[in-house]
Write a structure and sequence with these properties.
Elements (H helix, E strand, L loop, with lengths): L2 E2 L3 H13 L5 E7 L9 H7 L4 E6 L6 H11 L4 E5 L4 H24 L7 E7 L5 H9 L17 E5 L3 E5 L7 E2 L2 H9 L10 H15 L1 H8 L8 H12 L10 H14 L13
Parallel strand pairs: 2-3, 2-5, 3-4, 5-7
Antiparallel strand pairs: 1-8, 6-7
Length: 281
């Protein structure tokens, strides 16, 4: 399965990121803590090359804490990494502190060459709907960037001051041209990164159900009363539909409504703290 989704403004954004990279001292790359590798754009990896980088695992409040710790260890082999819940002030301070450390390293090198110190400059990048605009607003403690629950809402580049610590260049979320790995596509669809119209919601939901049964059996059973031993997807959808009133006329279960219920439960944390891929995968 190959899924293509590459709006024109994203192609332009990739070019601009490449062009503006020489203006910044380091990069802040955001990934979703629930699917860190799948939400890390391989195309950006090529563009960013050896630029110093801070990786922020966003939405840590929805992810599996132990899995997040392993992902941070994984990323810190080649970058600086931190996990963040944008509604947690301590996490926002941690992001600023980590970013400031990267900026100070660059400023020390400039000072050693006799260049007058200035505010460090960073570029913030990530795929759509990963939480860039919300994080920026928390960093500057005001509404500096547009936010929304629709992927791809930021469509221009903006320089934003983060106190006296550094200046931040916001960029639009960028997806790569196509998803050749079916698992990556399903993970991103499950957490709402790509538009629901791109994949059949029932297929995405079936993927989530199988994953939950294998890795988070107790949480899944606690929410829906369905064990890992129950494998017939028709029966599973039917049980959930009847339990949550996803019915049509005559009492028939509406599978599309069931899909929306399960995905909503995953995306809002009602299913529990879930990470859809492991760092050693």
């Amino acid at each position: 399965m190959t899924i293509q989704w590459f709006p024109g403004h994203m192609a332009k954004a990739r070019r601009e990121v490449s062009e503006k990279l020489k203006l910044v001292d380091f990069v802040i790359e955001l990934v979703d803590a629930r699917a860190p590798a799948s939400s890390q754009n391989p195309m950006l990896r090529e563009v960013l090359k050896d630029k110093p980088k801070l990786i922020v695992l966003m939405k840590k409040d929805l992810a599996d804490l132990q899995a997040t710790k392993k992902w941070i260890e994984h990323y810190e082999q080649h970058a600086t990494a931190v996990a963040a819940d944008v509604n947690n002030k301590a996490d926002i301070k941690a992001v600023i502190q980590k970013a400031k450390q990267l900026g100070d390293e660059k400023m020390d090198k400039l000072a050693a060459r006799g260049i007058q110190p200035r505010a460090a400059r960073a570029m913030i990048v990530g795929i759509p709907n990963v939480g860039k605009s919300t994080l920026i607003n928390r960093l500057v403690n005001k509404k500096a960037a547009k936010t929304g629950d629709r992927p791809g809402i930021t469509k221009q580049q903006l320089w934003i001051k983060v106190g006296k610590d550094f200046e931040l260049l916001d960029t639009p979320g960028i997806l790569w041209p196509k998803f050749e790995d079916e698992q990556v596509a399903y993970r991103l669809a499950a957490i709402g990164t790509i538009k629901d119209q791109l994949l059949p919601l029932q297929d995405v939901t079936a993927f989530v159900i199988r994953f939950m049964q294998e890795h988070y059996e107790a949480m899944f059973e606690g929410r829906y009363g369905i064990t890992a031993a129950e494998q017939d997807m028709w029966d599973i959808f039917t049980k959930i539909g009847k339990q949550f009133g996803a019915l049509e006329g005559g009492g028939k279960v509406n599978f599309e409504k069931v899909a929306n219920i399960v995905l909503r439960d995953l995306r809002t944390g009602r299913l529990g703290n879930v990470t859809l891929e492991q760092a050693d995968a």
